[in-house]
Amino acid sequence: MTGNEPKALLRALEHERVWPPPVWLMRQAGRYLPEYRQVRAEAGSFLALCYDPARAAEVTLQPIRRFGFDAAIIFSDILVVPHALGQPLTFAEGEGPRLEPLETVPAFDQAAFRRHLAPVYAALAETRARLPRETALIGFAGAPWTLAAYMLDGRGHDFPRALAEMRQDGVVFGQLIDLLVESVIEHLVAQVEAGAEAVQVFDSWAGLLSEAEAEIWSLAPLLRIAAGFVGRCPGVPLIVFPRNAPPAVLQALAEDGRIAGLSLGSDVDPDWAARVLQPRLTPQGNLDPRLLVEGGTALDAGLDRLTASLGEGPWIMNLGHGILPETPPQNVARLVERLRTAS
Ligand code: CP3
Hints:
- By secondary structure, the protein is α/β, with parallel strands linked by helices.
- The protein is 52% helix and 10% strand.
- It has a single domain (8-341), classed as TIM Barrel, CATH 3.20.20.210.
- It is built from 16 helices and eight strands.
- The strands form two sheets. Strands 1-4-5-6-7-8 form a six-stranded parallel beta sheet. A two-stranded antiparallel ribbon has the order 2-3.
- Helix 11 (211-232) links the parallel strand 5 (198-203) and strand 6 (238-242).
- The longest helix is centred in the middle third of the chain and has 24 residues, at 171-194.
- The radius of gyration is 19 Å and the shape is globular.
- The protein starts with 7 loop residues before the first helix and ends with a helix.
């Protein structure tokens, strides 16, 4: 190795079949790791950890040291974007995030936005400096629809206010989506400037929308972000994760041509993905996170099934959603070992 070979993750995102396939896991830094819980306790709170560059870099590196994943994802949260737009944010212990529900759509102040997020960019730079050469660094952001849902309801899983505003109005809701398209592009570009080599956009709540709504409020903003981001960071791959989105939306994202990777939720049939999506871009996923909790032969069988479906083409191994906190770390080690010794 000269140390200059293209990284496995980036090769896969250029639509190359890489063997063994690159692997990383959503929420790979987190509560299932005792060393994470320790640094989180030292930081005092989840948000303090997000805005502490040295500690955020440290917890980003922990799963790389333990498991040797092909990519590190910067330790942060999608809700730092609404926070940077001026919306008060807290994380109540054991309850998840709380935003003060939005009353008016703020104006975008680029300088204040970048200043607020400077610790995230510092964490990326520090992480890149400390990562092994062969490990790619991923930056990320939430998608406009998912961010708008948290911003309007302030919390939760069902987002009644966001759904009502989206269905009734269109004008104010559309202004909020426009603001978020601009903010997300800005945040992704700044992360690349700080050292991110690929970026992922999470539309975690795309599945709450009907197909027609998803085309307007999930797909269209994602395509605007793709156009804006690729224009400003040519050659830096973009991965999108529209969780539980209708198949027509996944197909449209694959056909756009600007998106390098499509992260698939556990609801997507890997044989369908191999046939319909994989010829156009690189699928990422989509092992059920519950199999990683279960471990043993159930985990092996799940992984083998995915390998049989997606392993013939470009593919990034990942989960269909984030690691569950009760996941035994030794099951993660087993997964990586089995994948790397597969033929
Ligand atoms: O390792 C990584 O994947 C990077 C870090 C990361 C976190 N959040 C850390 C985190 C990433 C990529 C996210 C994204 C995120 N945050 C999403 C999109 C992905 C998804 O899960 O659908 C969403 C919807 C959020 C908002 C959010 N943050 C929620 C709903 C919660 C509470 C749920 C929970 O697991 O507690 C969080 C908290 C959060 N974000 C934690 C972590 C490690 C747990 C907080 C803790 O340590 O107590």
